[in-house]
Design brief:
- With 430 residues, the chain is an all-alpha fold.
- It folds into 2 domains: 150 residues, Vanadium-containing Chloroperoxidase, domain 1, CATH 1.20.144; 182 residues, Vanadium-containing Chloroperoxidase, domain 2 (Orthogonal Bundle), CATH 1.10.606.
- It has 14 helices and no strands.
- Helix 10 packs antiparallel against helix 12 and helix 12 crosses helix 14.
Length: 430
Protein backbone atom coordinates (compact mmCIF):
# COMPACT_ATOMS: atom_id res chain seq x y z
CA UNK A 1 0.00 0.00 0.00
CA UNK A 2 1.31 3.43 -0.86
CA UNK A 3 1.30 6.33 1.55
CA UNK A 4 1.15 10.01 0.65
CA UNK A 5 1.48 13.20 2.63
CA UNK A 6 -0.56 16.33 2.20
CA UNK A 7 1.31 19.05 0.30
CA UNK A 8 0.37 22.70 0.03
CA UNK A 9 1.10 24.51 -3.25
CA UNK A 10 2.74 27.91 -3.29
CA UNK A 11 0.84 30.66 -5.11
CA UNK A 12 2.35 32.32 -8.14
CA UNK A 13 3.80 35.76 -7.51
CA UNK A 14 1.64 37.91 -9.76
CA UNK A 15 3.71 41.01 -9.04
CA UNK A 16 6.61 39.49 -10.94
CA UNK A 17 4.72 39.11 -14.21
CA UNK A 18 5.64 42.48 -15.78
CA UNK A 19 9.36 41.65 -15.74
CA UNK A 20 8.61 38.28 -17.29
CA UNK A 21 6.66 39.97 -20.06
CA UNK A 22 9.53 42.36 -20.75
CA UNK A 23 12.00 39.49 -21.02
CA UNK A 24 9.60 37.48 -23.16
CA UNK A 25 9.32 40.42 -25.55
CA UNK A 26 13.10 40.42 -25.96
CA UNK A 27 13.36 36.66 -26.47
CA UNK A 28 10.06 35.48 -27.96
CA UNK A 29 9.70 33.57 -31.21
CA UNK A 30 13.41 32.88 -31.38
CA UNK A 31 14.02 29.31 -30.26
CA UNK A 32 13.28 26.74 -32.93
CA UNK A 33 12.58 23.06 -32.30
CA UNK A 34 15.77 21.14 -32.91
CA UNK A 35 17.33 17.72 -32.96
CA UNK A 36 20.48 17.51 -30.82
CA UNK A 37 23.34 18.49 -33.08
CA UNK A 38 26.99 17.60 -32.86
CA UNK A 39 27.90 19.59 -35.95
CA UNK A 40 31.17 21.46 -35.77
CA UNK A 41 30.96 25.18 -35.22
CA UNK A 42 31.11 27.60 -38.11
CA UNK A 43 34.54 29.01 -38.89
CA UNK A 44 34.09 32.19 -36.93
CA UNK A 45 37.83 32.77 -36.78
CA UNK A 46 37.70 34.13 -40.30
CA UNK A 47 35.70 37.08 -38.99
CA UNK A 48 37.69 37.81 -35.85
CA UNK A 49 40.34 39.97 -37.39
CA UNK A 50 43.28 40.59 -35.04
CA UNK A 51 41.54 39.26 -31.95
CA UNK A 52 43.24 35.90 -32.15
CA UNK A 53 40.14 34.21 -30.71
CA UNK A 54 39.22 30.74 -31.92
CA UNK A 55 35.82 29.16 -32.43
CA UNK A 56 34.22 26.94 -29.80
CA UNK A 57 32.11 27.17 -26.69
CA UNK A 58 34.72 29.02 -24.64
CA UNK A 59 32.34 31.37 -22.80
CA UNK A 60 29.71 28.73 -22.11
CA UNK A 61 32.29 26.42 -20.57
CA UNK A 62 33.94 29.23 -18.59
CA UNK A 63 30.70 30.35 -16.98
CA UNK A 64 29.46 26.81 -16.42
CA UNK A 65 32.63 26.18 -14.45
CA UNK A 66 32.03 29.36 -12.45
CA UNK A 67 28.59 28.05 -11.50
CA UNK A 68 30.06 24.73 -10.38
CA UNK A 69 32.75 26.50 -8.37
CA UNK A 70 30.09 28.54 -6.58
CA UNK A 71 27.99 25.47 -5.84
CA UNK A 72 31.08 23.83 -4.36
CA UNK A 73 32.29 26.80 -2.31
CA UNK A 74 28.80 27.53 -0.95
CA UNK A 75 28.11 23.92 0.09
CA UNK A 76 24.92 23.75 -1.94
CA UNK A 77 22.97 20.52 -1.49
CA UNK A 78 22.79 18.20 -4.52
CA UNK A 79 19.11 18.77 -5.27
CA UNK A 80 19.35 22.54 -4.82
CA UNK A 81 22.36 22.48 -7.12
CA UNK A 82 20.24 20.83 -9.83
CA UNK A 83 17.85 23.78 -9.67
CA UNK A 84 20.69 26.32 -9.91
CA UNK A 85 22.36 24.54 -12.82
CA UNK A 86 19.08 24.40 -14.72
CA UNK A 87 18.20 28.06 -14.15
CA UNK A 88 21.68 29.16 -15.18
CA UNK A 89 21.86 26.97 -18.27
CA UNK A 90 18.44 27.95 -19.59
CA UNK A 91 19.34 31.62 -19.09
CA UNK A 92 22.55 31.14 -21.06
CA UNK A 93 20.79 29.44 -23.96
CA UNK A 94 17.95 31.97 -24.04
CA UNK A 95 20.52 34.79 -24.20
CA UNK A 96 22.43 33.22 -27.09
CA UNK A 97 19.24 32.58 -29.02
CA UNK A 98 18.19 36.20 -28.50
CA UNK A 99 21.39 37.73 -29.91
CA UNK A 100 21.48 35.27 -32.80
CA UNK A 101 18.43 36.91 -34.33
CA UNK A 102 19.56 38.83 -37.40
CA UNK A 103 23.07 37.39 -37.20
CA UNK A 104 24.63 34.97 -39.66
CA UNK A 105 26.34 32.95 -36.95
CA UNK A 106 29.77 33.95 -38.25
CA UNK A 107 32.17 36.83 -37.86
CA UNK A 108 33.36 39.04 -35.06
CA UNK A 109 29.97 40.64 -34.38
CA UNK A 110 28.26 37.31 -33.75
CA UNK A 111 31.21 36.00 -31.76
CA UNK A 112 31.25 39.02 -29.44
CA UNK A 113 27.46 39.13 -29.09
CA UNK A 114 27.29 35.50 -28.02
CA UNK A 115 30.12 35.94 -25.52
CA UNK A 116 28.42 38.98 -24.07
CA UNK A 117 25.07 37.21 -23.91
CA UNK A 118 26.49 34.29 -21.96
CA UNK A 119 28.41 36.56 -19.61
CA UNK A 120 25.41 38.83 -19.04
CA UNK A 121 23.00 35.98 -18.37
CA UNK A 122 25.42 34.21 -16.05
CA UNK A 123 26.45 37.25 -14.03
CA UNK A 124 22.85 38.43 -13.69
CA UNK A 125 21.41 35.14 -12.50
CA UNK A 126 24.31 33.84 -10.41
CA UNK A 127 24.60 37.19 -8.60
CA UNK A 128 21.04 36.75 -7.32
CA UNK A 129 21.65 33.14 -6.28
CA UNK A 130 25.04 33.94 -4.71
CA UNK A 131 24.83 37.63 -3.76
CA UNK A 132 28.16 37.54 -1.91
CA UNK A 133 29.83 36.67 -5.23
CA UNK A 134 28.18 39.47 -7.23
CA UNK A 135 31.28 41.67 -7.35
CA UNK A 136 33.44 38.76 -8.47
CA UNK A 137 30.95 37.81 -11.18
CA UNK A 138 30.72 41.37 -12.50
CA UNK A 139 34.52 41.55 -12.58
CA UNK A 140 34.57 38.34 -14.58
CA UNK A 141 32.11 39.86 -17.03
CA UNK A 142 34.25 42.98 -17.44
CA UNK A 143 37.34 40.84 -17.97
CA UNK A 144 35.53 38.91 -20.69
CA UNK A 145 34.62 42.15 -22.44
CA UNK A 146 38.24 43.31 -22.38
CA UNK A 147 39.61 40.00 -23.63
CA UNK A 148 40.21 41.26 -27.17
CA UNK A 149 42.29 44.15 -28.47
CA UNK A 150 41.04 47.68 -27.86
CA UNK A 151 37.92 48.70 -25.97
CA UNK A 152 34.98 46.42 -25.25
CA UNK A 153 33.37 45.48 -28.54
CA UNK A 154 29.97 47.09 -29.19
CA UNK A 155 28.41 43.71 -29.97
CA UNK A 156 29.70 42.29 -26.69
CA UNK A 157 27.86 45.13 -24.94
CA UNK A 158 24.74 44.33 -26.96
CA UNK A 159 25.07 40.71 -25.94
CA UNK A 160 25.40 41.59 -22.27
CA UNK A 161 22.10 43.51 -22.40
CA UNK A 162 20.30 40.52 -23.94
CA UNK A 163 21.98 38.24 -21.43
CA UNK A 164 20.86 40.30 -18.47
CA UNK A 165 17.29 40.20 -19.81
CA UNK A 166 17.48 36.42 -20.06
CA UNK A 167 18.92 36.22 -16.55
CA UNK A 168 16.09 38.40 -15.26
CA UNK A 169 13.54 36.18 -16.98
CA UNK A 170 14.89 33.10 -15.23
CA UNK A 171 14.98 34.96 -11.92
CA UNK A 172 11.25 35.55 -12.40
CA UNK A 173 10.81 31.85 -13.10
CA UNK A 174 12.81 30.94 -10.00
CA UNK A 175 10.80 33.20 -7.72
CA UNK A 176 7.59 31.50 -8.79
CA UNK A 177 8.74 27.88 -9.18
CA UNK A 178 7.62 26.75 -5.71
CA UNK A 179 11.07 26.38 -4.18
CA UNK A 180 10.23 28.94 -1.49
CA UNK A 181 7.38 26.85 -0.09
CA UNK A 182 7.63 27.26 3.69
CA UNK A 183 7.92 24.17 5.86
CA UNK A 184 5.14 23.44 8.31
CA UNK A 185 5.31 20.61 10.83
CA UNK A 186 1.81 19.52 9.78
CA UNK A 187 3.43 18.42 6.50
CA UNK A 188 5.57 15.79 8.23
CA UNK A 189 4.38 12.26 7.49
CA UNK A 190 2.97 10.15 10.28
CA UNK A 191 5.10 7.26 11.58
CA UNK A 192 4.21 3.65 10.95
CA UNK A 193 5.54 0.18 10.31
CA UNK A 194 7.67 0.16 7.17
CA UNK A 195 7.35 3.93 6.73
CA UNK A 196 10.34 6.25 6.43
CA UNK A 197 11.02 8.60 9.33
CA UNK A 198 13.44 11.49 9.05
CA UNK A 199 15.30 13.65 11.50
CA UNK A 200 12.52 15.17 13.65
CA UNK A 201 14.62 18.27 14.41
CA UNK A 202 14.77 19.54 10.81
CA UNK A 203 12.52 19.58 7.72
CA UNK A 204 12.89 16.64 5.33
CA UNK A 205 15.29 17.42 2.49
CA UNK A 206 13.55 18.54 -0.67
CA UNK A 207 10.11 18.61 0.92
CA UNK A 208 9.03 21.33 -1.54
CA UNK A 209 10.18 19.57 -4.71
CA UNK A 210 6.99 17.50 -5.21
CA UNK A 211 5.06 20.77 -5.70
CA UNK A 212 7.63 22.65 -7.77
CA UNK A 213 6.96 23.71 -11.35
CA UNK A 214 8.67 21.43 -13.88
CA UNK A 215 10.03 22.60 -17.21
CA UNK A 216 8.61 19.90 -19.49
CA UNK A 217 6.44 17.49 -17.52
CA UNK A 218 2.67 17.83 -17.85
CA UNK A 219 -0.46 16.65 -16.07
CA UNK A 220 -1.99 13.70 -17.90
CA UNK A 221 -3.71 10.34 -17.36
CA UNK A 222 -4.85 11.28 -13.88
CA UNK A 223 -1.38 12.39 -12.78
CA UNK A 224 -0.11 15.82 -11.90
CA UNK A 225 2.83 17.14 -13.90
CA UNK A 226 5.13 16.28 -11.01
CA UNK A 227 3.87 12.68 -10.86
CA UNK A 228 3.78 12.05 -14.62
CA UNK A 229 6.43 9.33 -14.33
CA UNK A 230 5.84 8.35 -10.70
CA UNK A 231 7.75 5.20 -9.79
CA UNK A 232 5.79 2.07 -8.97
CA UNK A 233 7.12 0.07 -6.04
CA UNK A 234 8.01 -3.47 -7.22
CA UNK A 235 6.95 -4.72 -3.81
CA UNK A 236 6.00 -2.86 -0.63
CA UNK A 237 7.74 -3.20 2.70
CA UNK A 238 7.53 -6.83 3.73
CA UNK A 239 8.89 -9.14 6.40
CA UNK A 240 8.16 -12.21 4.28
CA UNK A 241 11.36 -14.12 3.38
CA UNK A 242 11.92 -14.25 -0.36
CA UNK A 243 9.95 -11.07 -1.09
CA UNK A 244 11.64 -8.50 -3.32
CA UNK A 245 11.99 -6.19 -0.33
CA UNK A 246 13.71 -8.81 1.81
CA UNK A 247 15.92 -9.98 -1.08
CA UNK A 248 17.21 -6.49 -1.76
CA UNK A 249 17.57 -5.73 1.93
CA UNK A 250 19.67 -8.87 2.32
CA UNK A 251 21.99 -7.66 -0.46
CA UNK A 252 22.63 -4.39 1.36
CA UNK A 253 23.15 -6.25 4.63
CA UNK A 254 25.66 -8.68 3.10
CA UNK A 255 27.66 -5.86 1.51
CA UNK A 256 27.63 -3.96 4.80
CA UNK A 257 29.04 -6.98 6.62
CA UNK A 258 31.77 -7.68 4.04
CA UNK A 259 32.40 -4.28 2.44
CA UNK A 260 35.71 -4.13 0.57
CA UNK A 261 38.00 -1.14 0.33
CA UNK A 262 37.22 -0.92 -3.39
CA UNK A 263 33.51 -0.69 -2.59
CA UNK A 264 34.18 2.01 -0.01
CA UNK A 265 36.24 3.94 -2.56
CA UNK A 266 33.49 3.68 -5.18
CA UNK A 267 30.87 4.76 -2.65
CA UNK A 268 32.91 7.81 -1.67
CA UNK A 269 33.84 8.75 -5.25
CA UNK A 270 30.20 8.92 -6.35
CA UNK A 271 28.76 10.43 -3.17
CA UNK A 272 29.19 13.99 -4.51
CA UNK A 273 27.49 15.63 -1.56
CA UNK A 274 27.74 19.21 -0.25
CA UNK A 275 31.14 20.76 -0.82
CA UNK A 276 31.44 19.21 -4.29
CA UNK A 277 30.08 20.02 -7.74
CA UNK A 278 27.36 17.42 -6.86
CA UNK A 279 26.12 14.61 -9.11
CA UNK A 280 24.74 16.81 -11.88
CA UNK A 281 27.89 18.93 -11.74
CA UNK A 282 29.88 15.77 -12.40
CA UNK A 283 27.89 15.09 -15.57
CA UNK A 284 28.21 18.76 -16.55
CA UNK A 285 31.98 18.35 -16.28
CA UNK A 286 31.76 15.31 -18.52
CA UNK A 287 29.69 17.33 -20.98
CA UNK A 288 32.45 19.94 -21.10
CA UNK A 289 34.98 17.32 -22.18
CA UNK A 290 32.70 16.09 -24.95
CA UNK A 291 31.89 19.63 -26.08
CA UNK A 292 35.58 20.42 -26.52
CA UNK A 293 36.20 17.10 -28.24
CA UNK A 294 33.35 17.71 -30.71
CA UNK A 295 34.14 21.43 -31.11
CA UNK A 296 30.58 22.54 -30.42
CA UNK A 297 29.98 26.26 -30.77
CA UNK A 298 28.42 28.50 -28.12
CA UNK A 299 24.84 27.98 -29.26
CA UNK A 300 25.09 24.20 -29.50
CA UNK A 301 26.89 23.93 -26.17
CA UNK A 302 24.49 26.22 -24.32
CA UNK A 303 21.58 24.29 -25.84
CA UNK A 304 23.02 21.00 -24.57
CA UNK A 305 23.49 22.34 -21.05
CA UNK A 306 20.02 23.89 -20.96
CA UNK A 307 18.33 20.73 -22.18
CA UNK A 308 20.32 18.35 -19.98
CA UNK A 309 20.04 20.40 -16.80
CA UNK A 310 16.37 21.31 -17.23
CA UNK A 311 15.52 17.68 -17.95
CA UNK A 312 17.45 16.66 -14.85
CA UNK A 313 15.56 19.23 -12.80
CA UNK A 314 12.31 17.65 -13.96
CA UNK A 315 13.67 14.21 -13.08
CA UNK A 316 14.51 15.51 -9.60
CA UNK A 317 11.00 16.91 -9.16
CA UNK A 318 9.50 13.60 -10.27
CA UNK A 319 11.90 11.64 -8.10
CA UNK A 320 11.08 13.56 -4.93
CA UNK A 321 7.35 13.35 -5.71
CA UNK A 322 7.76 9.58 -5.81
CA UNK A 323 9.85 9.58 -2.63
CA UNK A 324 7.27 11.42 -0.58
CA UNK A 325 4.40 9.49 -2.12
CA UNK A 326 5.80 6.05 -1.27
CA UNK A 327 7.73 6.98 1.91
CA UNK A 328 9.99 3.93 1.70
CA UNK A 329 12.23 3.51 4.74
CA UNK A 330 16.00 3.35 4.35
CA UNK A 331 17.82 -0.01 4.62
CA UNK A 332 19.33 0.98 7.97
CA UNK A 333 15.82 1.68 9.28
CA UNK A 334 14.66 -1.76 8.18
CA UNK A 335 17.77 -3.41 9.63
CA UNK A 336 19.78 -1.36 12.18
CA UNK A 337 22.75 -3.75 11.86
CA UNK A 338 23.50 -2.27 8.43
CA UNK A 339 26.29 0.31 8.47
CA UNK A 340 26.79 3.17 6.01
CA UNK A 341 29.88 4.68 4.45
CA UNK A 342 28.51 8.21 4.85
CA UNK A 343 25.63 9.84 6.76
CA UNK A 344 22.06 8.87 5.88
CA UNK A 345 20.23 11.42 3.68
CA UNK A 346 17.20 13.03 5.30
CA UNK A 347 14.62 11.91 2.73
CA UNK A 348 12.92 8.62 1.80
CA UNK A 349 14.79 5.84 0.06
CA UNK A 350 12.70 5.08 -3.02
CA UNK A 351 13.57 5.88 -5.75
CA UNK A 352 17.25 6.83 -5.63
CA UNK A 353 17.69 10.55 -6.30
CA UNK A 354 21.29 9.99 -7.39
CA UNK A 355 20.06 7.54 -10.04
CA UNK A 356 17.25 9.82 -11.19
CA UNK A 357 19.73 12.65 -11.75
CA UNK A 358 22.45 10.54 -13.36
CA UNK A 359 20.13 8.63 -15.70
CA UNK A 360 18.48 11.83 -16.93
CA UNK A 361 21.85 13.46 -17.57
CA UNK A 362 23.41 10.56 -19.44
CA UNK A 363 20.30 10.07 -21.57
CA UNK A 364 20.75 13.55 -23.00
CA UNK A 365 24.54 13.20 -23.23
CA UNK A 366 24.18 9.90 -25.09
CA UNK A 367 21.84 11.50 -27.60
CA UNK A 368 24.36 14.24 -28.32
CA UNK A 369 27.46 12.07 -28.14
CA UNK A 370 26.46 8.51 -29.11
CA UNK A 371 30.07 7.37 -29.39
CA UNK A 372 30.34 7.77 -25.59
CA UNK A 373 27.14 5.88 -24.73
CA UNK A 374 29.01 2.77 -23.58
CA UNK A 375 31.20 4.70 -21.17
CA UNK A 376 28.25 6.69 -19.85
CA UNK A 377 26.20 3.54 -19.24
CA UNK A 378 29.11 1.92 -17.43
CA UNK A 379 29.52 4.99 -15.23
CA UNK A 380 25.76 5.08 -14.55
CA UNK A 381 25.82 1.44 -13.41
CA UNK A 382 28.76 2.10 -11.08
CA UNK A 383 27.14 5.25 -9.71
CA UNK A 384 24.01 3.23 -8.94
CA UNK A 385 25.91 0.43 -7.22
CA UNK A 386 27.82 3.00 -5.19
CA UNK A 387 24.65 3.77 -3.24
CA UNK A 388 24.20 0.10 -2.38
CA UNK A 389 27.86 -0.11 -1.38
CA UNK A 390 27.28 2.96 0.77
CA UNK A 391 24.44 1.20 2.61
CA UNK A 392 21.79 3.81 1.89
CA UNK A 393 19.75 2.29 -0.98
CA UNK A 394 18.16 -0.95 -2.10
CA UNK A 395 18.67 -2.27 -5.62
CA UNK A 396 15.03 -1.52 -6.44
CA UNK A 397 15.68 2.13 -5.52
CA UNK A 398 18.42 2.28 -8.14
CA UNK A 399 16.40 0.57 -10.86
CA UNK A 400 13.39 2.82 -10.33
CA UNK A 401 15.50 5.97 -10.20
CA UNK A 402 17.24 5.15 -13.45
CA UNK A 403 13.93 4.36 -15.14
CA UNK A 404 12.37 7.64 -14.00
CA UNK A 405 15.42 9.63 -15.08
CA UNK A 406 15.46 8.07 -18.54
CA UNK A 407 11.72 8.54 -19.06
CA UNK A 408 11.90 12.19 -18.04
CA UNK A 409 14.89 12.92 -20.26
CA UNK A 410 13.28 11.25 -23.27
CA UNK A 411 10.17 13.36 -22.69
CA UNK A 412 12.30 16.51 -22.52
CA UNK A 413 14.15 15.59 -25.71
CA UNK A 414 10.85 15.11 -27.52
CA UNK A 415 9.51 18.41 -26.17
CA UNK A 416 12.60 20.24 -27.36
CA UNK A 417 12.37 18.60 -30.77
CA UNK A 418 8.69 19.49 -31.20
CA UNK A 419 8.46 22.88 -29.51
CA UNK A 420 11.91 24.22 -28.65
CA UNK A 421 12.89 24.11 -24.99
CA UNK A 422 12.49 27.86 -24.40
CA UNK A 423 8.76 27.44 -24.95
CA UNK A 424 8.71 25.66 -21.59
CA UNK A 425 9.58 28.91 -19.80
CA UNK A 426 7.58 31.21 -22.07
CA UNK A 427 10.62 32.60 -23.86
CA UNK A 428 10.13 31.43 -27.41
CA UNK A 429 9.13 28.58 -29.65
CA UNK A 430 7.80 28.03 -33.10
Amino acid sequence: MTRSRNWHPIPRKVALVPLALVAATVLACSDQPTEPSTALSSDVSAGLGASGKSSGAVSTLEWQKSARDLVTSHNVSPINAVRIYALHSVAQYAAVVAVDQGENGVGRASYEAQRGAIAGASAQLLSVVFPDAAAFLEAQLVADGNAGPGDTHAHFTRGVAAGRAAGDAMIVWARADGFSLAWNESMRNAPGVGIWSGNPAIPPAGYQFPKMTPYFLKAMNGHTAQSQFRSLVPTPYSTVPGSRFQTDLAEVRTISQHRTQQQVDIANFWNLNVGTVTALGHWDEQAALYIVESQLDERAASHLYALMNAATMDATIGCWESKYYHLMLRPTQADPTITTVYPLPNHPSYPSGHSCVSAAAITVLSRYFPAHTGTLETDLAEAGMSRIYGGIHYRFDIEAGQALGRQTAEWALAYDRDHGLLTAVGLGGQ
